[in-house]
Amino acid sequence: MILQIVSRQRSGGTVRRSPIFATITSLALLIAAASGTAEAQDIAEKAKLCATCHGEDGKPKEADTPIIWGQHTGYLYIELRDYKSGLRKNDKMSVIAADLSKEDMMEISQYFSEKPWPRLDTSATDADAAAGERIASAGVCKECHLDGYVGASTVPRISGQSPTYLETTLLDFKTRKRANNPDKSTLLASFSDDDLKTMARYLSGIQSQ
Amino acid sequence: MLRKSRKALAMGVAGLAVLAFTNAPASSQEVKAATKYGDMQTVTQDLLNRAAGDGNNFLHTNGNYQQTRYYPNRQINSGNVSKLRPAWLFQTEVKETMETTPIVVNGIMYITTAFDHVYALDARTGAELWHYKHKMGPITVYCCGPNNRGVAVSGDMVYLGTLDSKLVALDAKTGKIAWQKDIADPELGYSETMAPTAVNGKILIGTNGGEYGVRGFVKAFDAKTGDLLWTFDTTPENSVGKWATHDATGRDMHRDIAAEKAALKKNGDPYKTLGGGVWQNPAVDLDNNRIYFLVGNPSPDLDGSLRPGDNLYTNSLVSVDLDTGKYVCHFQYIAHDVWDLDAVSPAILVDVKNKDGKTIPGVLHAGKTGHVYVHDRKDCSLIRFSEAMVPQENMWVLPTKEGARMLPGANGGVEWSPMAVNEGLSLTYAINLHQPMTYHVESTPYPGGKLWLGGAFKVIPAEEQWGNVTAVDYNTGKIRWQVKTPEPMIGGVLATAGGLVFTGEGNGLFKAYDAETGAVLWKFQAGAGVNAPPASYTVDGKQYIVVAAGGNTQLDYKRGNTIVAFTLAE
Lengths: 209, 570
Fold this sequence. Notes:
Number of helices of chain A: 11
Shape of chain B: globular
Strand content of chain B: 25-35%
Shape of chain A: globular
Helix content of chain A: 40-55%
Order of helices and strands of chain A: EEHHHHHHHHHHH
Strand order of the largest sheet of chain A: 1-2
Radius of gyration of chain B: 22 Å
Largest sheet of chain B: 5 strands, mixed
Structural class of chain B: mainly beta
Distance between the termini of chain A: 41 Å
Structural class of chain A: mainly alpha
Number of strands of chain B: 36
Strand order of the largest sheet of chain B: 1-30-31-32-33
Number of strands of chain A: 2
Number of helices of chain B: 3
Oligomer: heterodimer
Distance between the termini of chain B: 44 Å
Largest sheet of chain A: 2 strands, antiparallel
């Protein structure tokens, strides 16, 4: 078990990471190690490590963490792939994905996709729902995310997702802080921040089957 | 061909309805045994060759190898079409966008749904015979909805292209997989929504991916084994062309040739990620052993700065040799396209009058530009183009960061929707969209198989949208008749020897028009968007018209899951 991690900064100096970061790192190493051995742990056992943040019942522990239970295999795989390549960045997930093979990513993604999508206690006000629907229609979101915003394959389900995560994601796409889908950024840049926040509340309140 | 639905008005959230079945990967295939009408008849090459005169079956997605979508039976005609009534309905288990053309062989019908299900039905009753659910791979990447436009039939097999870019051969009697082959890597943006074409022991198929930086192709596979026979890359290693400054109609495209040449010198030829999808079936010229197909837009759609040159053979009619896939000829409509006004609707082979009035073998294509183009089949050269079927304004203003308004919007004109032809009247029937849009450009580097538009298309919310059905005399280029529809049109057309033209609308109406005048002779409300090409067939001496009513993802037309077959009331 690694209790702390030291990484090199661009300047050549070093920085001490937080204990939570160290825990994540050690879990990531466990996932990778387990995936790589002939006597690999059962995937369910490995996936327990993910529950540290994403929740043991599929409900994320923190508001800015997405639901991954019931999310599509293709989307989860592409995100893990992009974390590994550096196209998408996140202190925790970049470390976790760093040592995963393609097979690992597929296996983990498949595992979570087969879990039931959890219902969060979220709802939108009537005003948010009306405005959000209008904004989402202007963005033609259903052309990719489909009816009910349930997505398919590499296009994520966004209905019923954590509102905080959705808002952060939409704004991060707009500013290109999240850079692994440039055309999404181009589209979302045409909306105001308030519109994106409203749309996040609207989408999170939709409880599709 | 990115199909852009930018509808000005919200379409409602009716779609919160359950879609769980489309959401998850399809389960393993299910096959039911059932009593079939007669014995399944082997589809011989001779039968396929003679499809244009076959008054019983409907053997090709576009009716016959010439792709005229003209059905030769006249039992249902302009004099009695008012008595057309539903004979049966069949509901699939997938309530999503439907673009399938039903294929009918000796009383057995094959239809497909979104997410690549195939059903075999008794064409007399709609009873299900078997159901194949494609076990979808984890990665699918497609721009315009989880569509499928149908199957090809040959011998005792049924052939399907899938969203995860596989070619699947099914036993026509049972729906069980005979073989399955990878066509291309879906992680790089390849997918299949078109129906394959079966001819002379080969299965031909193109690819989607023009919005993802693929290198487009048409491939030929062995019909029995699935072995790859040849590949024609739609973007050749030298894609530069002749630095054309004007489009096929003579309009200036405002290219900055000097800047493009500098970019070419700096970055080289962009052919590896240049797009060039082939969305629809090739027409087959059996006499000359050639096929004719249309190649779609270059990648990225709106940003020409990354792809200097004419971007051959994007936005082109192309002909290759059927046996070898070797290039024969091409004609490019829009060199270095930055509007996605590409070539999608399938090629049609008919005899046409050339500029000297002499009748010669020709090729028709309807463009997103709103023109029908008429070509000489010998060398692909352009003979004439029709009057514009939709408003054209501000062509070819270059896209800007803030957005430049130009008509047609990027859906057309004529989208993928196949035309139908009545050669006796020298008329081709097209369905059109009118969707005013602004074109925005924003350069981003190749994103590795993800959506790569290089900007955005936006519908102008304040402007009215509509559609039309247009009959064009291909020997003169003149519009013979035109009927406006309340919504942009997408789906396809069927013409019959009964003097009729059938096509459907996003509002659920399915209509029959008089082929000569455009008068609406009959209509039926199907309850969901009729956005698929109709077909016709005859069993036990009774002619049927059949069409899918499943709505459309691209234009967000009301979804459904129904196949409706019509026949004359007793």
